[in-house]
Specification:
single chain, Spore Coat Polysaccharide Biosynthesis Protein SpsA, Chain A, 7 strands, 41% helix
């Protein structure tokens, strides 16, 4: 979606919130969103056991419910599928735990609206020290190591790959086969590897973050498992890209259709 097209029609912006037990922070996150910038907010409840669903309905969000916990990646698959059905031109993923600043949403979508990017990442490492903002030291070091490895593997120069604040153009979600991705946290990294392989333009915007008890925060063990899953992902991508063993996960829907034809 180039600059000329945005002059002809106002793009429909939909915020998607993958939610799991976010009752304590959902309303403050919602209240901080610049609503004049957003056309619709979709929340997918991933089997919460608190009052997340009740609060979401009180806020009159568009709500979809998983009857059990499908996982972070599984939640996002529903988020994006439903946002496309609702006619979104730009889709913003915002965690409802108030860790990322909702007021920066106009900055997040600006490069896509201007036709300068297909994907925008809100980076915690472009606005001062993430550790000063409360990021645990072991998470900081792990993030830096994995980001360096991913940059080397993909030939990019991003400040981080592991943010939960992201915006996508409609074309990105239509072409990337995200339904083939994991239902777990590595979903986000699989998506970025697919995006790089399919030559989508990725930009970053600085976003400060907040760490506090109510915000979701992965444990050391969970983070270690996540890190290992990224190493396996990069290995699969190496096999696909260098060894020329074609894996469906890294082919666009259009390319796979052409191969069938």
């Amino acid at each position: 979606m180039g600059l000329h097209s945005t002059e002809l029609h106002k793009p429909k912006v939909i915020v998607v919130m993958p939610a799991y037990n976010a009752a304590k922070t959902l309303k403050i996150t919602y209240d901080a969103i610049p609503h004049q910038t957003v056309d619709q907010i979709i929340l997918v409840d991933d089997g919460s056991t608190d009052k997340t669903l009740e609060i979401a309905r009180e806020l009159q969000l568009t709500v979809f419910v998983h009857t059990r916990n499908f996982g972070y990646g599984g939640n996002q698959k529903t988020c994006y599928t439903e946002a496309l059905k609702e006619g979104a031109d730009i889709i913003v993923m915002l965690h409802p735990d108030y860790q990322y600043d909702p007021t920066l949403l106009p900055d997040i979508i600006a490069p896509i609206k201007a036709g300068e990017a297909d994907i925008v990442l809100g980076s915690r490492f472009m606005s001062g020290s993430a550790m000063d903002q409360g990021m645990p030291w072991w998470k900081f070091l792990g993030n830096k190591f994995l980001t360096a490895l991913e940059n080397w593997t993909l030939g990019l120069n991003l400040s981080e790959y592991h943010t939960g604040y992201r915006a996508y153009s409609r074309r990105v979600l239509e072409e990337i086969p995200f339904s083939l991705n994991s239902d777990k946290f590595v979903f986000d990294q699989e998506f970025l590897v697919q995006a790089k392989h399919l030559d989508f333009v990725i930009k970053e915007v600085a976003v400060p973050t907040k760490y506090f008890p109510e915000a979701s925060n992965a444990s050391f063990v969970d983070s270690t498992i996540y890190g290992l899953s990224i190493l396996l992902l990069l290995g699969r991508y190496f096999i696909h890209n260098v060894c020329h063993v074609h894996l469906r996960q890294f082919q666009s829907f259009q390319a796979r259709y052409r191969r069938v034809q």
